[in-house]
TrEMBL record:
Organism of origin: Faecalibacillus faecis
Protein name in the entry: Phage capsid protein
InterPro entries: GP7-like
Amino acid sequence: MITLEQAKVGMADKVDQAVIDEFRRGSLLLDRLIFDNAVSPGTAGSTLTYGYVKLLKPATAKFRKLNEEYTANEATREKASADLKIFGGEFALDRVIINTSGAVDELDFQMQEKIKAAINLFHYTVINGNSTTNEDEFDGLAKLLKGSTTEFDDTYSKTVDKDVVAGKKYFTRTGEGTKESPYVYEKVDEPNKTNIATYYEVSYVDLSTSKAMDDNYNEFLDMMNDFIATMQGKPHMFLVNSKMATKMKGVARRAGYFSRQEDAFGRSVDMWDGIPIVDLEEYFDGETTKACVPIDEDGYTSIYAVQIAKDGFHGVSPTGNNVISTALPDLKQPGVIKKGDVEMVSAVVLKNTLKAGVFKNIKVQ
């Protein structure tokens, strides 16, 4: 296992070292994430696959009476794998632009922007990645946690409302609730009073306004404690969007849970009961900007919690120190267009679903 800080030590190129620091400075998640740098190309040299064993259900222990046998109970695990993905970007500049840059170094500016873009893409994919729908992505936490016991507060119940409540989500239900025919809930786009008796609603907590926070922060505190209790051990960080980060800090101040700590670069990190609140910010896909931790059209979002460990949530990378690479243009070579690029080769895995979790259905707007 290796961190980006440790990977930097093994690099001879000062530029590569500086780029590693920029990734660490731009992302507390990347700064603290550990990588299993053990992946080599397959036999054909076309894939980078990381194989591991995923713990689905831990074993249990019980008391017994004299002359009484234990009831057999085994831990459940399965073989799993993750393909490393390659992502980053390239930029091209005319050598005249590079050589005549003034106070703003154009080459440095483009490099910084590519690093930011790579960080934001990594953040977005850590949450939303789905290799089934996009083979270029690695799987993110939304998929890795689907159906786990740490997918918190996704409870549906028959609504008791007599009329439609503005801003509230309603669902219809199909299925028999069996393994062969599980319940399927679909959101009602245009709920109406006539059919409200047939609707279901999902449990949620409202922090959308200052008044709602005053009214509901104790409920939110209890739910946060229940959420953390579903995990095996205390999480190392909460991964959220900017709105959720603001709400969490507001509740933490009301409850005396708020504190600050300096990171490796001397900057303040906001904490919830000693756990960093990490704003994953936004991702720009070339057309639209979207929160890395989504907020749906009704204003509901989630909190992801991770425990970074070799038997929990961690990154994977190629053998050696090759998680991040950089290429700068050689201005002494012929050609008027000079190219540079930044690239990262990585994925994330979750070896134990009790080492991460998601708290859903928090209304923030």
